[in-house]
Fold this sequence. Notes:
This protein has 266 residues and is an alpha/beta fold. It is 38% helix and 15% strand. It has helices at residues 29-32, 59-72, 85-96, 120-124, 129-136, 140-150, 162-167, 177-184, 186-196, 220-225, 243-246, 248-260, and strands at 3-6, 11-15, 37-41, 78-83, 101-107, 205-210, 231-236. A 7-stranded mixed beta sheet has the order 1-3-2-4-5-6-7, with helices on both faces. α10 (220-225) links the parallel β6 (205-210) and β7 (231-236). α2 (59-72) packs across α3. It starts with a strand and ends in a 6-residue tail after the last helix.
Amino acid sequence: MRYLRDGLGPPLILLHGLLGYSFSWRHAIPVFARYATVHAVDMLGVGFSDRPPDLDCCLRASAERLLRFLDAVGIVECDLLGTSHGGAVAMMAAALAPERIRRLILVAPVNPYADQGRRAAPLLTSRLGAPVFLQVAPLMKLLHGYLLSRLFGDPHRIRAGTLQGYSAPFSQPGAFAYGISVLRTWLRDLDELEAALPQISHIPTLLVWGSCDKAVDSASAEALSRQFEDCRVVMFEGVGHLPYEEVPEEFNRTVVDFLAAPENDI
């Protein structure tokens, strides 16, 4: 399991989204490292981590692997930041071991109150749909620039090197099998996550969203925030699904302010 590490201070774990990897945090790590010991992981099956055959990619299995990673690097408790699918993994990991998670930072997290994925997942993982997707997936490299631009509120904010960085792992064998494996249990995972939310309601939480998010509906932030006793919501107007890419300075400042606040003032 590949990961990047930097900084000194309380442990902070960064979890990427479904087609991201530790590259997602290149603008954030140098800033967060001034305040924390940062670990930015490539989850198994994605990025430049190993891709074991028949990897169980359900939400619970991914969360359990994350907790084993904490054991392996000697982290007893941490602040946990996850984006998109990584946000769902973060919530599940917190539910499995709430005593190990001090605070949650969830960036446009996949959640039970957003409809995106509920219709596409059964189609893409069906007996007919999955083989077709895996055959045409390599062609996505040609469309990656368009797909990436759809995740931005303003595509003019895409910085040089962003497309190349996100596309780099596509050259690895099995690059798209991970996505199919995640989608295969998508609906069941959302139901399990919703049932688990009461177990993490006491954890201080920051929700960060872009108002123009086309991947995970920003309207779901309200319902999700109600599941936490102590939750702050920050909405970036005109920003899409990747605020850490689109407005990194504002995003970093928001996270640092949250981490720097006394826990009883959050």
